[in-house]
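= Paired protein data =
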Amino acid sequence: MRMPLLLMVSGIALLLLGGIPAVFEFMEMQGFPIDPTSNIFPAHWFIMIYGFFGSLIGNEVLVALSAEWSGKIASNGLIGFYLVLLVLGVTSFFYNQELGLVFVLIAMAILLYYSRVYLERSRLGLEPTVYNWLLFYSLIATIFVLSTQIGLGYTIPYLNLLFPTSMVFAVMTRDVSLVTRVRVSGWENVLAFIFLVLGVGFEQGALMLLAWALSFHASGLYKAKGRKYPIIHLVTAWIYFLLGSVFISNYDVFIHSIAVGFLFNTVFGVDVVLMDLFINAFQKRVSVRPSYIPFFLLNTGLVMRLLYDFGVSSPVFLLSAPLQGIGILSFFLLTLRQVMFK
C-alpha cells in the first residue's frame, strides 16, 4: 500500500477510534444504558485532533500541497515515520498523557521541518504566498501549544483546537478563492489568523469574533459565484465559527461549534484539497460527485446537540451523536467508494 494511502486510511481508522466513544458518551447522557467505550472517551479529543486531523493535515503538508507547490511529495520513509509517531502518540496518551504529547510534538516538528519547502519558490517559479507562511506559522503555534502542556504537566484540551483550526485558516487563504471565484484579501487573512491564535489561546470571544469577521469578509462567501455545494458548506462552517465565538463561555457549544461544525463542514466543502489527496494516494485523476447526505446528517445531529446545550430536551436528541458520526463517516466512505471503483 502506498504511504499516502496508508496515512489516509489510518486517519479514517483513528476517526472511528475517537468518534465512536463520543457517540456513546452523549447517548449515555440522554439515558442510553450501554457505553462499551467509556474507557476510551477521556482520550477522545486527543485522538480526533492529533490522530484524525493529524493524519489529514499530514497528508496535505507531506503529500497533496507539496506535490502542487514543489512538484514532489515527501519520501515514504518520512511519511511512515510521521504516521508511526501519531500512532505512538495516541496509544501512549491512554496511560501517559505527557508521553503522548511528546510523540505528537515530534510529529509536528517533522511537518514544520518539511514545510520549509513552502518557503521556497514553487516549481513554477512563484514566490511564497500568504498561505505558505500561515501554514508554517500554524505549525509553530501548534508546537508551542504542545510544548506548553508538556511543561505544565497537564493537558488543556480546548487549546489543542488551535492545530486544525489554524491550519484550516491557512489552507483556506489559498483554496477559498477556487470555490468563490472571488479574489481573497491577504492582509485580512493574516489579521484573522493572528486573532484566531490569540482568541483560542486566551479563550477570548472578542478576538474570535474579529477573526470571524475578517476571515468571512476576506473569503468573499457573501458574494460567491462558484458551485453551490462547497459554498453552502463553507457558509455553514462560518456560521458555526460565529456561534462558537459568541458562546465561547459555554464550553460545549464552543468546542462542538468549532471542532465539528466549522472544521468538518470545511472539510466536506473544500473538495479541491481532497482531490489532491486522492490523486496522489491512488496515482490517478479522479472525479467525485458530491452528496448532500453527509451534510444533512452531520448538521441535523449537531443542531440537536447545540439545542441540548442550550437547555432544550427531547427524546429525539438521542439520535444527535449517531447522526453526526454517520454523517462524517458516510462522507469519507461515499467519496472513497467513488474513487476506488472508478
